[in-house]
Amino acid sequence: MTRGNALVSAIIGHGGASGYRPENSHGALDLAMAQGAYGVSITVAPTSDGRLAVVGGVDLSDVRKRVELASRFGAKRIHSQMVRGWFSVDFTADELSQLHHAEPRPRMRKASADFASAAPEKVAMLAETIEALMASHRGISIWIDFPLPSQCAEWGFNYADLVATEFAGLSRKVDVTNIVFVSPEKTLIRELKARDLGPRVFYRTEPYGYANDESTSSKSSPRTYATEQTPAGLQDLAQICDGIVVDILQVFSQTGADKTAFEILWQNTDLVSFAHAAGLEIAGAVLRAENSFRPQYLRSGVDPAGLAKWDDFFELAVARKFDAIITDHPDLLAQVNA
Question: Would you state the pLDDT for residue 4?
Answer without folding.
Answer: 39
